[in-house]
Amino acid sequence: MSANEALLTLEGWFTYHDFRKINWEKWKQASSEERQAAIDELTSLMRVWNDAESETGGSTAVYSVLGHKADLCFIFLRPTMGELDELKTAINKTRFADYTETDYSYISVVELSNYVNNPGQDPKANPHVRERLYPILPKWDHFCFYPMNKKRGEKDNWYSMTMDERRELMQTHGLTGRKYAGKIKQIIGGSVGYDDWEWGVTLFAHDPIELKHIVYEMRFDEVSARYGEFGNFLVGNYVNEEALRKMFAL
Ligand code: VOV
Fold first, then answer.
1. pLDDT at site 4
2. 114 in contact with ligand 1, CB cutoff 6 A
3. 29 marked among binding-site residues
4. Which residue among 48, 115, 126, 223 is least enclosed by CB atoms within 10 Å?
5. DSSP 115-169
6. Is 146 part of the annotated catalytic residue set?
7. For atom 24 of ligand 1, which residue has the closest CA?
8. Does any ligand 1 atom lie closer than 6 A to the CB of residue 177?
9. What are the counts of helices (DSSP H) followed by strands (DSSP E) for the chain?
10. Is 62 exposed, middle or buried (CB count within 10 Å of its CB: 0-12, 13-18, 19+)?
11. In this structure, which long-range contacts are made by residues 219-226, counting pairs with CB atoms below 8 Å and at least 24 apart in sequence?
């Protein structure tokens, strides 16, 4: 084994998952004019994000989040980190933000690991690869997000395995994933150097049961069973402007 078999990764858009909790007490105390103005401001921002969505400009999706961990998640994919910073600040400048708390967020960059490359070809010239590096978020009804690591234990250490060993395990992973074609869309963000875990996994589904099925089935693949370490899971439902207005109507 060579001393360092880091593989080449391909990077696409930078990603920012902005999870917000709503301060409902404060929201209920606000006047109806104030609430209306806050929602109007947020929805006009959402329209700007939708209109800007393109192959070169990035993509945005908004989800409501179940459970106590968050109420909303804004998912932003953009060409530069500067744009992500501007988006965060733009939200924070709205009246709506006065009713939110930002307990959690996640920064990564859309990543393809080159375990399955075609030697001699420029991967970024391949439209299929470009589609995965610069994906338009699918706006399917449900999403889940969780961060994960590959284990660096004394016995099981992903990073001290050879490239061939890792490639073989990733091929099995890819085969499991392919069974979910059309049911699950995954966006893998590499977050080494950016956030607390090594990857942020965002899954989209039409049927929330498929989120459970894929995560469960993958637990049996050696790469997850032996090397996967997982953070908190968050799950939610897609919200467009109408759904958002309904969510905040009192
Ligand atoms: C729709 C499902 C699906 C499919 C088709 C799929 C396929 C593939 C392929 C072909 C490849 C390798 C090349 C590349 O594209 O990077 C990957 C890579 C990766 N995956 Fe994946 N994955 C899926 C889905 C999928 C899920 C559900 C998870 C979470 C794992 C779990 O246990 O909860 C995951 C994780 C990852 C990660 C963290 C990486 C990077 C690993 C690294 O060490 O670099 N992934 N993945």
1. 66
2. no
3. no
4. 48
5. GG--TTS-GGGSHHHHHHHSPPP---SEEEEEEEEE-B-SS-BGGGS-HHHHHHH
6. yes
7. 177
8. yes
9. 8, 9
10. buried
11. 221/169, 221/172, 221/173, 221/176, 222/169, 222/172, 223/150, 223/169, 223/170, 223/172, 223/173, 224/173, 226/151, 226/156
Q: Is 50 annotated as a binding residue?
A: no
pLDDT one-digit tens code per residue, 13-52: 999 999 999 999 999 999 999 999 999 999 999 999 999 8
Written as six digits, the tokens of 237 are: 């439902």
Atom number in ligand 1 closest to CA 184? 1
Question: Tokens for 204?
Answer: 């989209």
Out of 63, 106, 134, 146, pick the active-site residue: 146
Helices 208-219 and 163-178, interaxial angle, to 10°? 150
Is beta strand 199-205 parallel, antiparallel or unpaired with respect to 100-113?
unpaired
Work out the angle at residue 138's Cα, subtended by the Cα atoms of residues 92 and 49, and round it to the nearest 5 degrees.
30
User: What is the ipTM score, two decimals?
Assistant: 0.96
What stretches in the chain show pLDDT beneath 70? Answer: 1-4, 116-117, 119
Tens of pLDDT, residue by residue over 211-231, are 999 999 999 999 999 999 999
Residue 54 pairs in a beta bridge with: 58
